[in-house]
Amino acid sequence: MSNSDRVVLALGGAGKVGSGIVKGLLDKGFKVAVISRDSSRLEKLRSFVSPNTKDNLTTIVGNVGSEEEAEQAKQALLKEVGKVTDIVSSLGFSWWQGGPPHTQSLKDLHWLLALHSWCVYVVFCCFATGGAGEKLLMPGTGFLTVGAASTLAFCHVLREEYPEVPCKLNQVKINTGVATPDHMAPGFLNHLDLGEAVAALIERRNTAHNVFTINCPADLKSVLLERNL
Ligand SMILES: NC(=O)c1ccc[n+]([C@@H]2O[C@H](COP(=O)([O-])OP(=O)(O)OC[C@H]3O[C@@H](n4cnc5c(N)ncnc54)[C@H](OP(=O)(O)O)[C@@H]3O)[C@@H](O)[C@H]2O)c1
């Protein structure tokens, strides 16, 4: 199947990580669909992608955060695009720093755990996750670590529970910051480079149940592109 016959649903595609992936996929000739709760984010995404690829981008305002609303968004999506051949998920959020655990409520903990588990639960195919689940990034980010750890554990469980699903199921674990070109810091990944590398992973379709760990920008080439050849 050629890229132009494939329709990729990019969950979280209006976000920082997701927008780079959407652009990378469109530049490779894929058709891409993005669901976001926020129409202004979708407008921003439309003006961000390469102008000559805009016709291949379908945007839908919807919420995949509840089963009922996700079903509505799915129906709206299928009506627009007919079929979905691939899914990539970068759902979640960029940052949480509410303070040390004893200053937070149980409600906050439940919310974070539910959100992070849900990010994996809604989909399995290709996920962007973060290394925050293995260490405290800085004081006050403890619940982020707990939530991110649940995402990593859930991905692990899916790989073990579904060893032979007919779809390719891969995880890209990003152990560093991701930024747009105007907000780069040392060691961060440019979301455009990350998007290009994830698009190449999706394009090749030759690997399943793998975890691709990215610790620094150089890993995009050595881990995602070359290991995946
Ligand atoms: N940014 C980094 O430095 C970095 C580094 C390593 C790993 N990661 C991981 O990459 C993932 C994405 O991060 P990001 O920086 O791209 O975050 P982001 O810019 O906040 O984008 C997150 C996306 O998730 C969606 N989302 C969040 N909560 C939702 C909800 N309740 N219902 C429906 N959609 C929801 C948002 O959809 P809407 O468009 O509807 O708002 C948004 O498009 C996270 O899991 C993060 O841990 C990020």
Core attributes:
single chain; 229 residues; alpha/beta; Rossmann fold; seven-stranded parallel β-sheet; two-stranded parallel sheet; 7 helices; 9 strands; globular; binds NADP nicotinamide-adenine-dinucleotide phosphate
How many individual helices? 7
Largest sheet: 7 strands, parallel
General form: globular
Q: Could you tell me the number of beta strands? A: 9
- The end-to-end distance, rounded to whole angstroms, is 18 Å
Helix content class:
40-55%
Overall mean pLDDT: 91
* Sequence of strands across the biggest β-sheet: 3-2-1-4-5-6-9
Number of domains: 1
Structural notes for this entry:
This protein is of the alpha/beta class and 229 residues long. It has one domain: 3-Layer(aba) Sandwich (Rossmann fold), CATH 3.40.50.720. The protein has helices spanning 16-27, 39-48, 67-81, 106-121, 142-161, 191-204, 217-226, and strands spanning 7-11, 31-36, 57-61, 86-89, 126-130, 170-174, 178-179, 189-190, 210-214. The strands form two sheets. A seven-stranded parallel sheet has the order 3-2-1-4-5-6-9, sandwiched between helices. The protein has a two-stranded parallel ribbon with strand order 7-8. The longest helix is centred in the middle third of the chain and has 20 residues, at 142-161. It is globular. 37% of the residues are buried. The structure holds NADP nicotinamide-adenine-dinucleotide phosphate. NADP nicotinamide-adenine-dinucleotide phosphate is lined by residues 12, 14-18, 36-38, 41, 63-65, 90-94, 119, 128, 130, 174, 177-178.
